[in-house]
What we know:
By secondary structure, the first copy, chain A, is an alpha/beta fold.
Amino acid sequence: MSIESRLWRLAAHPKGPVEPSDFSLETVTIEDLDDGQFRVAIEYIAFEPAMRSWIMGRDTYVKGVQVGDVMRALAVGVIEESRHPEVEVGQRVVGNFGWREHAVASSMRDFGGIRAVPEGTPPTWPLSILGITGLTAYFGLLDIGQPKPGDAILVSGAAGATGSVAAQIAKHVKGASRVVGVAGGPEKCAWLTEVAGLDAAIDYKAFTDQRALTREVFEQFPDGIDVFFDNVGGPILDAALARINNHARIVVCGAISRYDTANPGPGPGNYTTLILKPGPMEGFVGLDYASRFGEAARELADCRADGKLTHAEDAQAEFAKAQAV
Amino acid sequence: MSIESRLWRLAAHPKGPVEPSDFSLETVTIEDLDDGQFRVAIEYIAFEPAMRSWIMGRDTYVKGVQVGDVMRALAVGVIEESRHPEVEVGQRVVGNFGWREHAVASSMRDFGGIRAVPEGTPPTWPLSILGITGLTAYFGLLDIGQPKPGDAILVSGAAGATGSVAAQIAKHVKGASRVVGVAGGPEKCAWLTEVAGLDAAIDYKAFTDQRALTREVFEQFPDGIDVFFDNVGGPILDAALARINNHARIVVCGAISRYDTANPGPGPGNYTTLILKPGPMEGFVGLDYASRFGEAARELADCRADGKLTHAEDAQAEFAKAQAV
């Protein structure tokens, strides 16, 4: 029996801020399964910072999403019907299914590789703490940031999906002496110190000029910064660059402040500190670490179970409604 | 018998461009040597890019030069009188003697370590190709840039003392497939291709806007940039960042375009390329490699003797005249 199913396609590459009109909702008919096929009913779809670059029409470390493509996303669902001998109804799976309600596959190698979600793992975790953002935090902090016990570490976007994992691993797993998170507003800052257990938080919205923000960074780091895990760019990057120690590592994970605007403003003038305080300012591509995803996901799940790591999830209902949250 | 001798002291930390009035000339009397002392008659004084930061009044990887201090500089001279049992008159030496005509020492450990200039080495080489600029090029290119055979390499400030050594080592010693130098004006550019043997030169003065310069960099590097050795910063850094390959290395050696001005302009907006094209953007401090200076100087001297490396020197006379050259 065929079913109706909805999906979202990219309708336009955004110029400036992303608009609902950059996507179009479509209802399609999914026919009866053929022999060897199985169908996944999607439960949760990941919402990732990386999407911002996927939809710009450029190929980066992955091919860009083109106009007319189903919007790319990691998603979790349950096998609701199977005519495949090795795929059982009821199994929960994660794969690169995109923005759709149902996905039909004929191999676990479809959709970029479909993986079973282990029994006991909450269904949203493969999209959050064990998903792209959690793995990005893990490899960026450990492989680029290389935190050592006693290091003083600054994380921007620290209340975000990636930053919060990086900051907590630094503080509770890697023995940093001081971890300070940057976030916008008192509520996020309170979460950073009271729930995530960081040493301090900087509410960037409370510092309207560069000089005041830089002064705050100096006060928060009387002995300088050893690792800066940056998700944001802009004023906090310049302030951090002014305070790095010799052989500091600057992890260029993202630049949120520069994505959603046609005019992102000047780059970090203080990059010249690198001349006198040698140390890498370096980006990374999570996919380069694909061979270690399993190891990393197990360690993250253990840290989460031990209480060394907490994370907040924000699940939005209403598949058909393209609204900013 | 006492002698008269002149020296220059720092008179003020420059604000904006360096002015002759930032230095003061003084004539001092040097008394007869005591037992154990020896006196060096200075022949050549090095003129280094690093001086620009030494005189700003800040401590960096070395203590800043303070107002009233004799201006710091590496210099070469000849022992003209000695009452030290192990120091022979006529020996040529190099040391951190500063801007003075005569230096009196009582140990070869004075003046940051006085070293004999080997027989057969031209007297200016310890201040140029075997001096701070040559060693800076050597360690910056090899340890930070890590050039591999077949790499495409861009060097800014390529006609300068440091850039010219980095570019030639890349091209003639390390097997780069393509080395392009950036310099100002047709004369320097002709030197880069015709004398230094680079593949091409970019005359940055011929490109008045960022877009045109970036287009030129794209044309010069159809397969992207693997190593950018940057002495300059500013527009060429932004253009290079736009064209780097995955796992490129950006050597932040200097930022000439930003030193001699009170208003250095925006930082490199294209640093965000690092997020998608992972690879380090990294500075270094030559002094960190002090234990390998001997090895490096021998290799540089051999390359110079083999004709793999050429360098131009600009010797100015008139110690007492503080004029820009």
